Amino acid sequence: MLVVAKAPVPGRVKTRLCPPAGPEQAAWIAAAALLDTIEVVSAVPDVVPVLALEGELSAAVGSGPIVEALDGWTVLAQRGRDLSERLAAAHADAADRYPGSAVLQIGMDTPQVTVAMLTEALDRLGGGVPAVLGPAHDGGWWALGLCEPEHAEVLCGVPMSRSDTADRTLAALHGRDLAVGILPSLSDVDNMADAVAVAAAVPDGRFAAAVRAVVAPEVSTAPLGAVPTVPAADRPAAAPRLAAW
Predict the structure, then answer these.
(1) Which of the four, 46, 67, 108, 227, has the lowest number of CB atoms within 10 Å?
(2) Which residues contact 223 (CB under 8 A, 6 or more apart)?
(3) What does the pLDDT read at residue 241?
(4) pTM of the model
(5) Cα–Cα distance between 41 and 45 in angstroms, integer?
(6) Is the peptide bond before 20 cis (omega within 30 degrees of 0)?
(7) Per-residue confidence at 159, pLDDT binned at 50, 70, 90?
(8) Other CB atoms within 10 A of residue 170 CB
(9) Alpha-carbon distance 93 to 70, whole Å?
(10) Beta-strand relationship, 2-6 and 50-54
(11) Which residues contact 54 (CB under 8 A, 6 or more apart)?
(12) Which pLDDT value is given to residue 115?
């Protein structure tokens, strides 16, 4: 299991959450998403968990809990000039570290992912499907699994963060004559509207708590669902405290 993530450093992560979040609040939301994702991946049976990280955790908010949660994980530095190259390199580096293994890769933008979802994807890879792809609602994708991780090099020719990224990725995989199993579609977190919607799906997680610390009463008509708006008097001025996690 490969998680590709950015260190939650203020001003360098989740900047599209600003406004309404400030840079530090956005970083705390990112840290919460990463922690929730690490927790889920750690609970998946019979996998080797790997994190491909961009940036330094020493400069990140929530670094202590993140480092603690990564106990037993393999942590690799990302490499590459852009996202597509970094994704392809992360697959290659994980495969180099654990030769002969299939790789299922996700990001830190879908903290609503569950053990059952990941287990299903791994079962499909183990059952003979050479590739699986999890489309995102915005046209990107949230998961890519490959029985032969070297095929991830096709990502270097796919533009990322576009409304047709998933379609282009699927076409690139088909160009390698790979049958691709399609996973359930999920929302990833690009902006605050996404964050609010995802928080509603996982109201009891760290991610939802971090989003609640930012969302103001005047925007409480957003689809928060079970996630209550935090009254202005109760919201922290900057970031949610670790004690709340």
Answers:
(1) 46
(2) 196, 197, 200
(3) 35
(4) 0.85
(5) 9
(6) yes
(7) confident
(8) 19
(9) 18
(10) parallel
(11) 5, 6, 7, 77, 78, 86
(12) 96
d(CA 229, CA 233): 11
Q: How confident is the model at residue 220 (pLDDT cuts 50, 70, 90)?
A: very low
Average pLDDT over residues 236-244: 35
Helices 23-42 & 115-126, crossing angle to 10 degrees? Answer: 50
pLDDT band at residue 216 using 50, 70 and 90 as cut-offs: very low
pLDDT at position 86, please?
A: 94
Tell me how far apart the alpha carbons of residues 65 and 60 are, in angstroms, rounded to a whole number.
11
Establish how many alpha carbons lie within 13 A of residue 33's alpha carbon, considering only the half-sphere containing its beta carbon. 31
Which of 206, 245, 203 has the alpha carbon at shortest distance from 224?
Answer: 203
The reported pLDDT for the residue numbered 217 is 34
Q: Which amino acid is at 112?
A: Q
- The 10 Å Cβ neighbour count of residue 99 is 7
